[in-house]
Amino acid sequence: MKKIWGSCLVILICSQFAYAQQNEPVDSTEIVGLEDVVITGQFSAQSVDKSIYQVEVISSEDIKNQAGNTIADVLNQNLNIQINPSSGSGDSQITMMGLNGSYVKVLVDNIPLVSDSGFGNNIDLTKINLDNVERIEIVKGAMGVDYGNNALAGIINIITKKTAKSDWKINFMVQEETVGKEYDWYEDGGVGKGKGRHIQALDVSKKISNNWYINAGVNRNDFQGFWGVKKGKKYFEQDNNRGYEWLPKEQWNTYGSLHFKKGNFSAFYKLSYLSEEINKYDSIVKSRVFPGGERTFFASDRDYFTQRWTHHLNLNAKLFNQIKYNGDFSYQTQERKFQDYEYDIPARTETLRKDENIYLSTKAYYSRGTFTNFTNRKDLDYQLGYELDFNKGFANAFADSFVFDENLDKEIGSYAGFVSAEIHTNSGLSLRPGFRASFSNKFKPQFSYSLSSKYDLTNHSSIRAVIGTANRYPDFTELYTYQVDSNHNILGDENLTPENGYSTSIQWNNRSRFGNFRMENNVTTLYLDVDDKIDLVNFGGANYKFMNIDKYKTWGVSTDHRFTWNRLSLGLGASLFGESQTLSSQTYSTDQKTEDEYRYHFQGNASLNYQIPNWATTFSIYYKYTGKSSQFIVDYENSTQENTYFTLAKRDDFNMLDASIRKGFYDDRFEVTIGARNILDVTSIDDDAYIGQGHTGTGGGNVQLFYGRSYFLKLVYNLEF
User: Fold this and answer.
1) What are the pLDDT digits (tens) for 23-70?
2) Are 417 and 385 in contact (CB under 8 A)?
3) Is 109 left (phi over 0), alpha (psi -120 to 50) or beta?
4) Is the dihedral of CA 543, 545, 551, 553 positive or negative?
5) What is the SS3 assignment for 34?
6) CA-to-CA distance for 145 and 53, rounded, in angstroms?
7) What is the pTM of this model?
């Protein structure tokens, strides 16, 4: 805690120095970036500079400049966020503030998305495309009062577009991208071998009247896999080189929404559907001899299928001509299946295709509502809210790598009420205390608290301080699953208790303008503490069990600076964070405890955008450095039933560099973006903590992060009338 208050003192000194150096007052709406409106954690939509929370925004322009198609494409450049792709499953999970996706809540328009584990956590980011996305809002730190379970590390809220200026708007997009050095236009017809990434999208919006607006779209993302040292699905030499390093997968995202607004009432309904197919080609080629001496070669292959339906109804109304009500209602389903078959490789035909097997499914109901504007005063307001969620999870006995005595069919439900108040004083100080009570059909009641404050040092400099708590309920996997593969037997525990944690942060913001030169500086210190952290513990041989054993802490300082001069925009950021773990093993005969000092790691990023209006052209460069890191994990090789040992796992550093050129034609009706991802050609790094997952079942100290340098060409046609 001494380090935290030391950081606070530094920020306060900096703020007073900045105050003494200020020139004439400026209108904050003229400062770069402050025109952005945010809704995450707010009573009502407001500008970033007025928000009592520090909200980071990835704008639609950033998304366009990076030619991002999924959330995973654009989040990698953010400090203290790491996207962890799996070459086997094709999924991409997030790590924020050193904590994995179980501690990060991913929302779309304030609604958490369903996953195998429940609501909003462990979301595969490649399954969320960026069509019709207006911006992405990120809040780091515990947000338990506002968003409840799993919001320990932070919130990622994806905000979609909900209005149209013209009667009709049609957007058509085609994007072709290499996968490393591999690319073919198409596969069939004997011309290509099936390589590259091929994306097409269509979005149509119609302003029916001043009150009604409709939107619909479809996106196809065809990733043909990464061959690497492998030889593809048509290879039939018996040397274990058949298949792909990164499995091929094809996604279809379709969506539609209907919006209505009249007077003090507005509503929208959204329906979205995801269909994903992943193809796993066995590296083992077998031979078969027919009567007469003819021979063929075949392999036992498998297809994985995911289907997800999302229904979302939002109501926004004024009650009794004063109280504002904002309510969300959602029903979501996700179903995961696999299908085995034999593939006759020389004949290019499938044989013995079996029935589909459902191995995981989730059905979830969710509702969240808030009531605000009780006082109709600018200096004081209250918010009352409720949140309800119900999850029904299913896992098939002896399906995929899961093994149970019988099919699992479990239900987990919770409901919560929360209250907060915003107080604004004439001295420039704003306060927001909050409280949440959460109840569950399985766990004891949990309570969350928060106190947020914002003080305007001047009309263009402010300081924020936030302390908040959050809890995390064990998810379906940790409670119930019994997963068996060639390396591990992993057992869930129905007696797990919820994790509890809190975070404190202080952020200083300063905005200045000198003629055509504009500058914004942010300095943030954040401390995060988690008790009863759930982790895997060895209890004999290759047997592991989820248990409440850990205490996790992280703290550090990050800076973000943005400079704009005429058409040139430069962003610079850096962070230094330390992580600490306390691991207590609980085996049959011993208790062993490892207390870890803070281990620090550094990250830095930079972005450069230059616009040439006469050419309708934007040049963009994005860079991020992720420093070396380490963490204590269970030493699986040396641990026994009698003793559990821990080892320090280290992860190498790496650099990421992306660049693009975006050019508009015919008043931006036609837009072309060309660029390169991963220019520094990063593929894999050494990571001692890595355990293989997904559909590969492999593990080791080397983790594949990317498939190397890739190039893309994106064509967009916009038609408005």
Assistant:
1) 333 333 333 343 468 888 888 888 888 888 889 999 888 898 888 888
2) yes
3) left
4) positive
5) coil
6) 13
7) 0.86
Terminal-to-terminal C-alpha distance of the chain: 59
Contacts of 503 (CB under 8 A, 6+ apart): 141, 142, 152, 466, 467, 468, 470, 526, 527, 528, 529
DSSP state of 557: E
pLDDT tens column, 254-269: 999 999 999 999 999 9
Determine the average pLDDT of the residues in 589-605: 74
Residues 6+ away with beta carbon under 8 Å from 302: 280, 282, 338, 339, 340, 341, 695
CA distance 100 to 71: 16
Instruction: Answer whether 297's CB lies under 8 Å from 287's CB.
Output: yes
The whole-angstrom separation of Cα 670 and Cα 715 is 8
Question: How many C-beta atoms lie closer than 10 Å to residue 208's C-beta?
Answer: 13
Distance CA 698, CA 690 (A): 10
**What pLDDT was estimated at residue 6?**
41
Q: How far apart are CA 669 and CA 717, in angstroms?
A: 6
Residue-wise pLDDT for 65-115, tens only, equals 888 888 888 888 899 898 888 777 677 888 888 888 888 999 999 999 988
SS3 at position 102: helix
- In 3D space, the residue among 322, 309, 407, 316 whose CA is nearest the CA of residue 365 turns out to be 309
pLDDT on residue 20: 36
Here the tokens at position 130 are 């960026």
Tokens encoding 378: 């600018």
Joined tokens for residue 222:
């065809």
For 637, phi then psi, to 5°, come to -75, -35
Q: What is the pLDDT of residue 715?
A: 97
Cβ neighbours for 620, distance < 8 A, ≥ 6 positions apart: 65, 66, 607, 608, 609, 610, 659, 660, 661, 662, 675
